[in-house]
Structures are given as C-alpha cells and as structure tokens.
Write a structure and sequence with these properties.
Length: 393
C-alpha cells in the first residue's frame, strides 16, 4: 500500500515500521493492536504519559470554547497558564516569552542575547543540540546538521562540555552569552560533573556574559527536579523550555531576567501561535498534573531503579550506563539499530542518541511493573546482540 507519509510527506525522518494510533500513560498501541511501553515519549514530549486525563480534559474544555487568540488580545487560558508557569519559573528569571517549539525557544534566547548585550558572538558546547532552525542550528555542534546549510550565524565558538579549562579563553569581547544544556540529550545523555555548571556560572559572571540554559529536553521534572540545573546549583539568566511543558501539545517558553526580557520592544519579537489558548490550557493542565501528583519524585525513584538494572546487566558490549532521573543513556560498543528494532518487536520503544547510545526517556507515570518489563526486554535485546557478536554474526 502506498502511503502519503512515504510518497507526499517530505522524507526527513528515519521511520520505524509501526503506525501508532493510541496512547495511555506509559503505553502506546499500533494499528494492529500491539501494545508497547513507550520509552521515547515523542522524544521526551509525553513526560506525563500519553493522554494524561488532566491535560485531555483541559484541552477538551478549551477546544469547545476558543481555539485561537492572538497575543495582541488578553486571554483567560493564557492568564491561567502564566500564573502557573510563574510559580515554577527557574530561580533568577522573572518573565517568559511563549512560542511553539524547542528551537523557537532557543531563537528567542539568541535574539534576547543580541538585543540585551549588543554583542554578536556566542559560546556553545561541543556535542550540543539546540535545534535546527538557522539560529539554533548555529549553536548546534554536529557538522552533519550544519554543513548543508552554511553560512550560519557568525561568531559562534564551541567549548568542551563538562570541563571549564578552555571556556574562559573563548569568551572575548565579541561574546554575549554561553549556551549550555545541563544534561546533553541528543548527543548521548551526557551528565556533567557536579560542580561544572556552577563553574560555568562563575566564569560568565567574571566575564560579564549571560548564561543561557537549554532545558528543552531536561526540564519539567525529567531528571528528578523540576529543572535539571537545580541538581547543580547554578541559576540561569535565560532558560529555554519546550517538549514536555504542554503535556503533549506544542509549546515553547523562554524565561529571562526582567531587565533582559524588557530589552525587547513591542513588535521586535512576536509570533502568531505563541500563547494560543489550546496550548496554554494543556500547559496549565500539565503543570497541575506534574505538581499535584508528585510525579517529579517518580523520576528519581524509577530512574534510579532502571539505571541500577542496566548497570547490573554487566554486559561486555555496554560501555557505560548514565543519566539523571528518567533521562537515561546506555552507551554500547557497537551501532544500536538492531537492538532498537529487537526491543520494538518485544514491545518496548527506545530511542537512539547518535549511533551508539540507547536513549530512554520514559514518562514520569511509568510503574515499577512497566519498568521491570523495560529492563527485561532491553536486557534480552542486549544479551542477544552480545551472543551474536561473540559468534561473529
Ligand atoms: C536541548 C534541546 N534543545 C532544543 C531542541 C529543539 O527542539 P524542537 O525539536 O522542539 O525544535 C531539542 C530537541 O530535541 C533539544 O533536545
């Protein structure tokens, strides 16, 4: 059967051979009725699980009332969302700009830095990922994403991630900000040493440049704290969030200190869909679910259980198990596509991060029993691959 997804839609995604049609909590079902435990969650979006009742109800109610309301009008759903976001905003930030995606939240940060500091340059990190629009792409490390679209923004330099010895030297007069992910996601779940972010903060303060934290993947409870940087005791000047924030609906948020946000004049940065009632209602529902159901704690509890289980596998083809909360990576000694497809066959969806890291971003609502199945399936797939390799297959 020829499908429009194959013939008409731009061919820019590597597809898994499965059509997903339904989701509840940590589980999704395909068009043949087969059930999977979803440790991909739409690349981290369904952090509260699929179709969380509070989010569904908020969206349903709002959909019957008002779908769209441009930012040039006040709106009650936006007001409610903002009042909830204000209570969980990252320490050190005072205001927020609403958008629709992670990359858009980074674009906003880039423009804020340029406007506030009047400087053109940035330092980002080796192995960073900040998105694929032209500005965010300029701060993204991988040349496979960058090269086809050169020239990108001028004046971007890259520093090693997780150590600060080269950072100070890279921050010259041209640089307005340093961009960092508190835990690097796309490049393989890299958790920096405990004092790294604090040192980056000190260097930024010493040099008089802004610190922008990209928590698009690590934020909103994923790592066992509402914001991942809270593990490391360093406050941002600007923070980018998206993915899980809308409980499954698209929303982006860029938080900033008031003096930084206020440097933007009316009309200098705006969008059509940012702060739309549907996304705002979903976000308000998602915040209620996250905080009232104590889901953040579950990230630490089940995350710790899974991390220990993967470490105890003690397989020769596993190089390292790492992560924080429910942001987990298993670095293998070989390419991992076979393991991902075998897990899929056995009813568990896992992601890649690069060619050799299995990435697991399970939802915070995952139960112990579901986590046990994940351990068992991923463990079996790894053992089978280990055996094949040992036999030289
Ligand atoms: C840290 C980080 N920043 C930005 C982005 C881009 O977000 P989006 O795909 O919503 O544009 C991602 C996406 O994976 C991300 O992980």
């Amino acid at each position: 059967m020829s499908r429009c997804e194959d013939t008409f839609l731009a061919d820019t995604f590597w597809k898994r051979p499965v059509t997903l049609v339904k989701g509840r909590g940590a589980r999704v079902w395909d068009s043949n009725g087969k059930e999977y435990i979803d440790c991909s969650c739409g690349y981290g979006v369904a952090l509260l699980g699929h179709c969380h009742p509070k989010v569904v109800e908020a969206v349903r109610r709002q959909a019957e009332k008002l779908l769209t309301c441009h930012g040039s009008f006040y709106n009650d759903a936006r007001e409610e969302c903002l009042s909830k976001l204000a209570k969980m905003k990252p320490e050190g930030t005072d205001k927020v700009f609403l958008s629709n995606t992670g990359t858009e939240s980074v674009e906003t940060a880039i423009k804020l830095v340029r406007k506030y500091t009047k400087k053109k340059g940035f330092v980002a990190m080796i192995n960073s990922f900040h998105g694929k629009t032209m500005g965010a792409l300029s701060l993204t490390w991988a040349s496979k994403y960058r090269e086809p679209f050169m020239p990108l923004l001028d004046g971007v330099k890259f520093a090693p991630y997780g150590k600060t010895d080269k950072l100070e030297g890279l921050i010259d007069e041209s640089v307005g900000a340093v961009f960092v992910e508190p835990v690097q996601g796309e490049s393989g779940i890299n958790v920096p040493p405990p004092d790294y972010l604090r040192q980056v903060r000190e260097i930024c303060d010493g040099k008089g440049v802004l610190l922008v934290l990209d928590e698009v993947q690590s934020g909103f409870g994923r790592t066992g704290k509402v914001w991942a940087h809270q593990h490391f005791g360093a406050r941002p000047d600007i923070l980018c969030a998206s993915k899980a924030l809308g409980g499954g609906m698209p929303i982006g948020a860029t938080f900033a200190r008031a003096d930084i946000m206020d440097s933007l004049k009316r009309g200098e940065h705006s969008n059509t869909f940012g702060g739309n009632p549907l996304a705002c209602a979903a976000c308000a529902g998602a915040i209620d679910a996250l905080l009232k159901e104590n889901l953040v704690e579950n990230a630490s509890a089940i995350g710790g259980y899974l991390k220990k289980g993967f470490t105890d596998l003690d397989s020769k083809i596993v190089r390292e198990v790492r992560g924080l909360g429910l942001m987990l990576g298993i670095e293998m000694r070989f390419e991992i596509m076979n393991i991902i497809l075998r897990c899929l066959e056995m009813g568990v969806i896992v992601l890649e991060a690069g060619k050799t890291v299995l990435r697991l971003l399970p939802p915070l609502v995952i139960t112990k029993e579901e986590a046990e199945k994940v351990l068992s399936v991923v463990g079996t797939a790894i053992r089978e691959e280990e055996k094949k390799r040992a036999l030289g297959a």
